[in-house]
Amino acid sequence: MDEVAQELIGLLGEANVLVAKQDQAPFLTDWLGKYRGTARAVVRPGSTDEVSAVMRACAARRVPVVPQGGNTSMSGGATPDNSGQAVVISLQRLNRVRNVDPVGNTISVDAGVVLAKVQQIAQDAGRFFPLSLGAEGSCTIGGNLAANAGGVAVLRYGTMRELTLGLEVVLPDGRIWDGLTALRKDNTGYALRDLFIGSEGTLGIITGAVLKLFARPLARATAFAAVEDANAAVTLLGAIRDRCGDRLTAFEFMTGECLALILRHIHDARLPLAAMPQAAVLIELSDQNDEIALRERLESGLMECVEQGLVLDAAIAQDGTQAKAFWRIREGVSEALVREGKAAKHDVSMPVSSIADFVIAADAAVGASAPGARPIVFGHLGDGNLHYNVLPAPGQSDADFAALVPDLTRAVHDEIGQRRGSISAEHGIGQLRVSEMPIRKAPIELELMRQLKGLLDPAGLLNPGKLLPLSND
Ligand code: FAD
Ligand code: MLT
Ligand code: ZN
Known about the structure:
- By secondary structure, the chain is of the alpha+beta class.
- It is built from 16 helices and 18 strands.
- The strands form 4 sheets. It has a 7-stranded antiparallel beta sheet, sandwiched between helices. A 5-stranded antiparallel beta sheet has the order 5-6-10-8-9. Strands 1-2-4-3 form a 4-stranded mixed beta sheet.
- β17 and β18 form a beta hairpin.
- α9 (about 255-265) crosses α12.
- D-malate binds near residues 333, 379 and 387.
């Protein structure tokens, strides 16, 4: 047996060092089935000290390490390459909730705790943890931090970066940084915490975090509104914000093609409108009290927009069950896309005011580079974040479409570049976008990132091939 694996067994015990291919399999392919890797071993440490010991052993032998949480990355960030050299460190066994402080409104957890568990524990403590995304049943807090996850409540609560107070990190040389403070104010040096958030496992392994908790929203009002296009949706966003202010919690856009795809594949999804719209928005308000008044505020705002011709049809959920049914449509999109086939996924962000003309320009660019290909557009419009997915033309083979994707993606991302947008709003760079970094990031940005990487991980052992291109090529 490989002597590295032997040494790791000495550290973690045989049960927590997976060397057999069938045992490793679930850890070596990404959620989309786009990336497949091989590993020297998949290890499952049960404590921060064990993570540190594994990192020291791998560093001493210059063995590359791939951190993994729930393996739900949409950019291939948690999948090893095919060299068979890497050790995949799964953080799933680091799953203790360390402390819940309802007075200080904080929760301290291990990195391997699943997001849905943190949501539940916050609720049990009479509080609310707002990060919410389609993978919440399996993604972990460590992965949420490493990918700076967004989701459907960023509009009101921010991304994972804004939800985090303290971090515990094992560095590439095995040292442990205990930055698990629960302070909302601490100006004692550089923002080390923020360096690791969004670093996609390339600067350190996050083993613990202190997260913010919020007052539980006791009242919600949810609506599904038909609009003509993205431009109307942006105008509606402004109108609802003017009337509802910070009560506006989610504002999710879907095109008619997207809705049709969801209804085709998600059998318990029901459209709450009289007819299939050109586009639609799922709107949610939340507040501390008086759900009836909140619903009336949303309803009157939408009715005014109907009178102005901005909203073409609308349904207001009358209870939690109906609200859940509205969300079932939105939450079904990723699954529907996977069932439909291999989409070219683009997770882009831009100033909200640019969204309408971006969609027109991107659709035209797709038509030119992949005639007949079908844009399926949805996303967190309030954050300026669209998931601009493109499916092959009807009847087109995956291979023929795949040959067109590089040009198609370049065209879509050129439109983003012209609007000073981002080619990765929330899913991270991972393997998927790493080759585009030299095109899309200014040389000085790449230089600074490489210098930081060189300082913390001079041997380039942590998550090689992800986020940062190894050279300027
Ligand atoms: P993994 O996939 O295991 O890893 C993600 C990255 O973080 C990798 O680079 C990995 O190396 C690194 N990493 C993991 N754990 C650690 C750690 N402890 N320390 C250091 N690095 C680590 N994302 C959004 O932002 N918004 C969405 O709305 C959204 N919706 C999704 C819906 C579906 C159905 C799916 C499948 C995914 C969705 N995602 C979304 C993407 C994904 O769920 C998030 O990026 C999530 O934060 C990843 O968490 P994870 O634990 O699965 O991380
Ligand atoms: C979402 O918002 O549903 C996710 O980011 C997943 C996706 O883009 O497919
Ligand atoms: Zn998303």
